[in-house]
């Protein structure tokens, strides 16, 4: 009888934890227009996996540079470093669809479609003013064709057949446009930095805590809140472990 009571208490605790954690129904990842999605939280694991799948082969994209900067420095603005903002920056850059499409078409473009009811899709949009990789590549190439002696022209080779340079394109873009902001190729850079003041992209004196260079993109959680689903799983595991220990003790007493 005592064991039955303990089981009932444990079941109630598990149900309470699950309810407190909020809905994580996978239906919202495929059908984000469902009414239940208005309170849905996209698991960080889904977002970070998508970021990593893109950046492990296309680290030159501006969104991947954003991810690397945020991974290296936890003190950066959480608004710009939210994982969904990083993914949105990658997936909404239409010029880069040939590179990002295989991942984005199965993730962000689905759960953050135009009619999505998931709140974070509107609350955490793409980094404001961050252009596509194609635009950054073209800007760097254009400047360096005109003024090849500029120091930051050494960072990137000419674009290959894909239209990209396999290098830190944002670093080159930043250096060139900070050095000569009045160049005809730099309006997009100037507008972005006037609006965001994001140090890794806009401040010539900024040094990453990782020693001045960003580490490989990791897709880590930059929100400062951790993964709620993982925390809940730990609590549930603790509750069940406590229940089992109590049940064993109760059985021993009966015997």
If you had to describe this structure to a student in words, what would you say it looks like?
The protein has 255 residues and is mainly α. It is 56% helix and 0% strand. The chain is built from 14 helices and no strands. The chain has helices spanning 2-21, 27-30, 44-55, 62-72, 78-81, 83-91, 97-104, 108-111, 119-123, 133-146, 169-179, 187-196, 199-202, 228-254. The longest helix is centred in the C-terminal third of the chain and has 27 residues, at 228-254. The chain is elongated, with a radius of gyration of 24 Å. The protein starts with a helix and ends with a helix.
* Spatial extent as radius of gyration: 24 Å
Strand tally is 0
Q: List the secondary-structure elements in sequence, H or E.
A: HHHHHHHHHHHHHH
Task: Kindly report how far apart the N and C termini lie.
Answer: 13 Å
Mean pLDDT: 82
Q: What is the SS-derived class?
A: mainly alpha
Query: How many distinct helices?
Result: 14
Low-pLDDT windows of residues:
5-24, 212-255
Shape, principal axes of CA atoms:
elongated
Helical residue percent? 55-70%
Strand content: under 5%
Biggest sheet architecture: none
